[in-house]
Amino acid sequence: MQTSDLLRRVRRLEIRSRHLVEDLFAGQAESVFKGRGMEFEEVRPYVPGDEVRDIDWNVTARLGHPYVKRFVEERELTVLLVLDVSRSMRFGTAGPEKRELAAELCAVLGFAALRNDDRVGLVLAAGRVEHFVPPARGRSHVLRLLRDVLDAEPRSSGTRLGEAARFVLRTAHRRSVVFWISDFEDAIEPRDWRVVARRHDLTALVTRDPRDEALPSVGWVELEDLESGARRLVNTGSRRARERYGVEARERRRRVEQALRRARIAMVEVRTDRSYLPVLMRYFSARRRGRTQV
């Protein structure tokens, strides 16, 4: 992409995202991430009314009485954006491509972090981790992240979510608010993701397109697997073919959702054919009430 074109796209994304962030905050003074960045402070004796999930079982077993971990809200949050840049994210039939939607989500979340003076970092991943920008503050830093997102072209094939999850574990040493933006077209290993979710405040933003699960009846068409490049002719006029396509797609979706639930990861679906702002507003409102599923 030409540098001048890239800078124009970054500028347009900044202008739009800043307006959307104001809508997202809806007049609130605190960060939309508030209440989820917590750091350990001490262990103290359990008292009735404490959360059972906060019990420190190692200390409890050692001392013979229940003790709970006490956490305090971090005054400085680190936001980490993990973006899937694999070829399947180039898909889009009813609005922007998934990767364009993902870029806008990165912009909104990045400027939301900037508004609260939080640090924000970036991981771009496909078949392997393609690019990493350590967390930092400031407008110029957020603009640099957006430039990298818009200019991303995967050098590796396929999608390997597990490799990216292990990279996050190796590089993010302090607890972070992690937003993982992907269509999750790769199998998820719950064990890796459970570890990430225990160490960090992890949210999966799952990008969907209407044609992910439903084919229109338009006769014979050539379908391409964007990850492998394989092509095949499909008769979309066949009801059986359309039903088989939908069943297989829904099964993939069910496996992803089940794996994320087993790993206790909050999941938010964002679609190319609908505005994502109401979805994000509901999600962050639920976070402030202590819920994470919307």
From TrEMBL:
SUPFAM superfamilies linked to this entry: vWA-like (SSF53300)
Q: Which ranges carry the VWFA domain?
A: 76-249
SMART domains attached here?
VWA
Protein name as catalogued = DUF58 domain-containing protein
Q: What is the lineage of its organism?
A: Bacteria, Candidatus Eiseniibacteriota
**What species is this protein from?**
Eiseniibacteriota bacterium
Transmembrane spans: none
Superkingdom of source:
Bacteria
Q: Which InterPro entries match?
A: DUF58 (IPR002881), VWF_A (IPR002035), vWFA_dom_sf (IPR036465)
